[in-house]
Amino acid sequence: MTNDEDNSADAESLAAERGPTVLRIALGSRLRQLREGCGISREAAGDSIRGSHAKISRLELGRTGFKERDLRDLLTLYGVVDPAERETYLELARRANDPGWWQHYSDLLPAWFETYIGLEQAATTIRTYEAQFVPGLLQTADYARAVIQLGNTDETERRVAIRVRRQHILFRVVAPTLWAVIDENALRRPVGGMQVLLEQIEHLVEMAERPNIRIQVLPYSAGGHSAAGGPFSILRFPEAELLDIVYTEQLTSSLYLDKRRDVELYMSVMNRLSVEALSPPDSLQFLKDLLSEMRSGEGIA
């Protein structure tokens, strides 16, 4: 095997680790390059698979799965006739169509949150601001259980399992960077009781010392701040085909923003929050001081 083949295999292995979403993006990107290289319009490509230009756009952006018949027709249209080369594309499509681990919980997860988990698995940078609770990716199982029970009374343990499973991305060989700004209010709210909160703060101290995790505390002393509208996350991907995405969540739905103007606005807010919050080293010291206060019985309002 050549060095190029080794590198390609390594890249595909890392992509697979990031889940089917990124594999769909990779395959869609290759198909777009093939189409453009042949000078074929999206409309013409759509006609060849009995679809529309919008369907081709969704396929090329990795936002939908691939039917083998459609892929074979597109490869023929784009002049990919070598059996071995065609099989490479078909095998990638099969892997891209494999269900993500979260789909085993589809009876619990609304479709909009399944989408978010797929994107979260594929992201290489996750920036998040939380005002009321510790971010889900940083929650202990007991803290997550207490938060979940505030809004759900069924299948609690499976819901906790989903949240814990999401956190596995932080320990991958090539893990995403998580940059979390957490309001002091969330760190003092005794969700689940003092002992649960104390163990949660201990966990934050441990996680803050990992090289791919940056935690900043937004203290009361900062006063009013840029994110008065509520919590949000910004996800970034290495693929040029997938723009940064802003995710905000309401009680029964979510909002995804990928228009440049919206993303730039939220990124500006996130950058201001990072300036207004304590630095990561000072935030780590804040957490350690908070632990001392809590252990002495003085830290819970």
Note the topology.
Layout: H1 3-17, H2 20-38, H3 42-48, H4 53-60, H5 68-77, H6 83-96, H7 111-122, E1 125-130, H8 141-151, H9 156-166, E2 177-183, H10 184-188, H11 194-208, E3 213-218, E4 232-236, E5 245-249, E6 254-257, H12 260-276, H13 280-295
Parallel strand pairs: 1-2, 2-3
Antiparallel strand pairs: 1-4, 4-5, 5-6
Helix pairs in contact: 2-6, 3-4, 5-6, 8-9, 11-13
Can you put this structure into words, describing what you see?
This protein is of the alpha/beta class and 301 residues long. The chain folds into 2 domains: 3-96, 434 Repressor (Amino-terminal Domain), CATH 1.10.260; 107-295, Endonuclease, Chain A. 53% of the residues lie in helices and 11% in strands. The chain has 13 helices and 6 strands. The chain has helices at residues 3-17, 20-38, 42-48, 53-60, 68-77, 83-96, 111-122, 141-151, 156-166, 184-188, 194-208, 260-276, 280-295, and strands spanning 125-130, 177-183, 213-218, 232-236, 245-249, 254-257. Strands 3-2-1-4-5-6 form a 6-stranded mixed β-sheet, with helices on both faces. A hairpin with an 8-residue loop joins β4 (232-236) and β5. The longest helix has 19 residues, at 20-38. Residues 4-9 have low confidence and may be disordered.
